[in-house]
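Z., the sequence and structure:
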Amino acid sequence: MGVKVIHTKYGEGIPRNFTGCVMWRGGDREWRENDELHKEDGPAVVRQSTGIFQFWLHGEEKTEEAVELYYMLKYKKPWSGTWWRKNKNR
C-alpha cells in the first residue's frame, strides 16, 4: 500500500489524524503520522526553497543520528535513508 499524499496551498484539505505526506505549494514536504510530524527513514520536513531538512519522530524534533539509531533498533537492519545528504548543501 502506498503513502497517502495531499497537495495543499494553505493547509486546506488535510483531514484530522492524517497519516501520509503533505505536499505544499512551492515543493515543501511534510510526513505525518496521526497529525504529528514523523518519518523513520529520512527527514520528516523538507523545505525545498531553503534546503532545510528536519528529522521528527512522533511529533518531536530529533537529530539525524537519533532517527538513524531508532530505525536500526526498531527494524534490526541498516538505515538506507541517505538521499537528502547529497542535496542538503544546495
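Residues 5-82 form one domain. Strands lie at 5-8, 20-24, 29-33, 36-37, 45-47, 52-57, 60-62.

Let me know what you think.
H.
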